[in-house]
Amino acid sequence: MSTLKDQFLLRPDITYLNFGSFGATPRPVFEAYQRWQLELEREPVQHIAVRAPQLLREAREALGNYVGAHADDLVFTPSPSQAINIVVRNLEKQLQPGDEILSTDLEYGAMDRTWNFYSRKNGWVYRRQHIPLPLSGQDEFLAAFWAGLTPRTRVVFIGQITSATALVFPVEQICRKARELGLLIIVDGAHVPGHIPLNITAIDPDFYTGACHKWMMAPKGCSFLYARRDKQDMLDPLIVSWGYESAAPTHSRFIDYHEMQGTNDFSAYLALPACIEFMQQHNWPEVSRQCLELTLQNIPRFAALLRTVPLAPLNSGMFGQMCSLAVASTGSATATGSATAAGSAAAGAAVDAAALKKRLYEEFKIEAPIMMHNGQAYLRYSIQGFNTQDDLDRLFEALEEIL
Ligand SMILES: Cc1ncc(COP(=O)(O)O)c(C=O)c1O
């Protein structure tokens, strides 16, 4: 795997253990991206007005094959935030005051903010169901989640891989039950494409968002919204532009509404086929397998160092290429929640989370996030194909020295 390091543009002096935040783009993909930008700059009219619709269609087809969805059920968005905002904004036409959105208290801060904003405005209840940590496995998670179901539940919103806690949730099971119950299902799969196998059709949500600029390694600003065919008509565009009441409608109102959002540089979207080709050329299933192995192998020693326990059993299927461990902390201004600390809080002497992150970067040149969630600090490491045991040893030794 170490030879893959040459394929990335990342600074060689930094031990990069935070792929999860914004990914990183390999050279051949970045070159494809720049070729698209050059084509745009050399003949903007031909590129944007003439060629873009067909090029975007090809990129959506490549994405659809990769994530298990029909190309016509996908639209590109710059970020998962934008994708989720399209959906939530349109729920204003569907939900009544007092209706509930069942979710967890481990969701991403930007998503919590979106739900809080629209819930306050419309009188909905955004139910952040408490998930006890550490979990004994998927069953305990499912029981804790469904304990939040009430007669007013209308929507299920669930992250497939959480951010601060880096846990993989069994969304397929959640979606199956939610569908039986007649609930609307929205999945935040920001971390999923290119990270763990994904087949959206098999999961069968109503709406699904994924970021391609994370584990698929696309240039930044490349994400998507999937909408089930029978739910597409409920979505008005977030930005009303040429695609609305289009003068030249395509076969899909969904695509017209959400793809034609005004002048844009589509290069990040158009580079997506190059990402998929890169992964194929480098046998990505094997790279991912090795990354998962490295992630799991290191959990016990980091847990011991931090005097904590893993957030789930190592064989629970709840880990991908990231691991988060609780750090005993005095907290920081970046806290994202208000609930009490997770049950697994480390027992060692408390450290200042923000100061720890700063020291890791400034003194040890290690990029690894220390994230506050629900009043608890978590150290998270991400393993990508260019990472090696040496990188994790460097993190371990730095933490040993600091703590
Ligand atoms: C669970 C989760 N959802 C969504 C996102 C992406 O959100 P944004 O729209 O800020 O890029 C992230 C990014 O880290 C995430 O971890």
Write the layout of secondary structure elements.
Elements (H helix, E strand, L loop, with lengths): L14 E2 L2 H4 L4 H16 L1 H24 L6 E4 L2 H11 L9 E5 L4 H14 L2 E5 L8 H9 L6 E7 L11 H10 L3 E5 L11 H4 L3 E5 L11 E5 L25 H7 L7 H4 L1 H10 L2 H22 L16 E6 L1 E3 L19 E2 H10 L3 E2 L2 E4 L2 E7 L6 H14 L1
Parallel strand pairs: 1-12, 3-4, 3-5, 5-6, 6-7, 10-11
Antiparallel strand pairs: 2-8, 7-8, 9-14, 13-14
Helix pairs in contact: 2-3, 4-5, 12-14
Bound molecules: pyridoxal-5'-phosphate.
Q: What share of the residues does DSSP label as strand, in percent?
A: 15-25%
- The percent of residues in helical segments reads 25-40%
What average pLDDT do the residues reach? 94
The ordered H/E elements are EHHHEHEHEHEHEHEEHHHHEEEHEEEH
- Return the structural class: alpha/beta
Biggest β-sheet description: 7 strands, mixed
Give me the CATH fold name of the largest domain: Aspartate Aminotransferase, domain 2
Q: If classified by CATH, what would the architecture of the largest domain be?
A: 3-Layer(aba) Sandwich
Unreliable runs: 333-347
Task: Kindly report how far apart the N and C termini lie.
Answer: 30 Å
Shape: globular
Bound molecules: pyridoxal-5'-phosphate
By CATH, the superfamily of the largest domain comes out as Type I PLP-dependent aspartate aminotransferase-like (Major domain)
Number of helices: 14
- By oligomeric state, this entry counts as single chain
CATH class of the largest domain: Alpha Beta
